[in-house]
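Need a sequence for this fold. Nothing fancy.
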């Protein structure tokens, strides 16, 4: 039976919910880190007359409220699944594919910048006397077309790789596409992350050994963790997606010293693997502790005198845990963080060989490779 108050029920419920959420916003403790989204949450805005007048204070306040709103992650998830229901797959920057795969959408790849980056690396290699090998890793969206949703934008990793192959004709070029196609029976990319799985990294290692005429080493599965959520998951908001399985393969008798350098600080470790990360939401840093400016890997059981410089992004981390078996010393330089002259390392260590290992998107769009010309 309708009454004269029936029309007020819905607005009153909405106002009550808004009041409860507002009280909760001020009463509940604030987190500094969003685990599902893998990002640091904003701090309260600092008041100043300048920030008030130029609008900065308002923007910071809006960001702070959005980051710390009660049940925020639940609302993010609801929005993500609503987009799926409304056939807006990919609007969040992630495509929901088949078999639990989440694929990051691809920004425009800058082929002009690609040429400049390759030219900068060539100039560095020429003045340093380095014999250079290239390995450019295509993204999952390019390689796993059968797992993509029916409607999606095109991926252009092939254009990057073909252009790079032409520009690097004087160097050794290992086509990662072939290596990853030849081992198609294994899961080579994570379903919730943009990186290669250990099987994918091992496929690249096998291709490298064939090209370099190396005998290769045997590895055994030592760790299998079923709770890995990667970067695509964090960006998607699709919180009901099943986690990946992260595997670690190691030499039965491996003995390594890993030296991580950040600025003037050097820290030594006795393993290629950092298992403390396996209890975190982001487990990929289990390989060489994730992103660092400079990492030195010393193979304590190897005395072949072979030394290698790897210019890289994070695709190299798992791969290097295999390749370390082939070299006495490997230096890994990440130009996103490294701001010291790389040539000093080469001169000090007598390195004459370099591997350039990047994801296609990073190599095409990187603004950090230019540092090679400035350092």
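Here you go.
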């Amino acid at each position: 039976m309708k009454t004269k108050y029936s029309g007020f029920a819905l607005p009153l419920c909405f106002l009550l919910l808004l009041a409860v959420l507002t009280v909760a916003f001020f009463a509940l403790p604030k987190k500094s880190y969003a685990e599902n989204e893998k990002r640091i949450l904003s701090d309260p805005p600092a008041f100043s007359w300048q920030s008030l007048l130029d609008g900065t204070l308002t923007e910071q306040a809006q960001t702070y409220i959005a980051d710390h709103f009660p049940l925020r992650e639940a609302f993010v998830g609801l929005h993500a699944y609503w987009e799926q229901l409304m056939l807006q797959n990919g609007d969040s920057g992630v495509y929901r594919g088949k078999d639990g795969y989440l694929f990051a959408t691809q920004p425009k790849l800058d082929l002009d910048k690609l040429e400049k980056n390759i030219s900068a690396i060539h100039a560095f290699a020429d003045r340093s006397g380095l014999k250079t090998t290239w390995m450019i890793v295509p993204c999952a969206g390019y390689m796993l077309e059968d797992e993509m949703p029916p409607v999606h934008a095109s991926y252009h990793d092939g254009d990057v790789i073909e252009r790079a192959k032409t520009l690097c004709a004087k160097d050794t070029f290992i086509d990662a596409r072939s290596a990853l196609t030849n081992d198609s029976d294994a899961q080579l990319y994570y379903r919730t992350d943009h990186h290669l799985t250990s099987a994918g990294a091992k496929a690249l290692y096998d291709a490298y050994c064939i090209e370099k005429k190396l005998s290769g080493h045997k590895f055994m599965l030592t760790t299998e963790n079923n709770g890995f959520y990667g970067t695509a998951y964090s960006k998607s908001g699709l919180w009901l997606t099943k986690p990946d399985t992260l595997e670690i393969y190691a030499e039965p008798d491996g003995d390594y010293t890993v030296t991580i350098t950040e600025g003037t600080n050097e820290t030594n470790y006795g393993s290629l693997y950092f298992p403390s990360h396996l209890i975190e939401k982001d487990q990929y840093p289990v390989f060489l502790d994730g992103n660092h400016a400079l990492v030195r890997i010393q193979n304590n059981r190897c005395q072949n005198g072979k030394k290698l410089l790897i210019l890289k992004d994070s695709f190299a981390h798992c791969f290097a845990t295999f390749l370390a078996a082939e070299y006495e010393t490997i230096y890994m330089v990440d130009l996103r963080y490294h701001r010291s002259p790389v040539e000093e390392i080469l001169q000090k260590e007598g390195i004459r060989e370099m591997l350039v290992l990047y994801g296609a998107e990073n190599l095409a769009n990187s603004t950090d490779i230019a540092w090679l010309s400035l350092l």
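For context: The mean pLDDT is 88.
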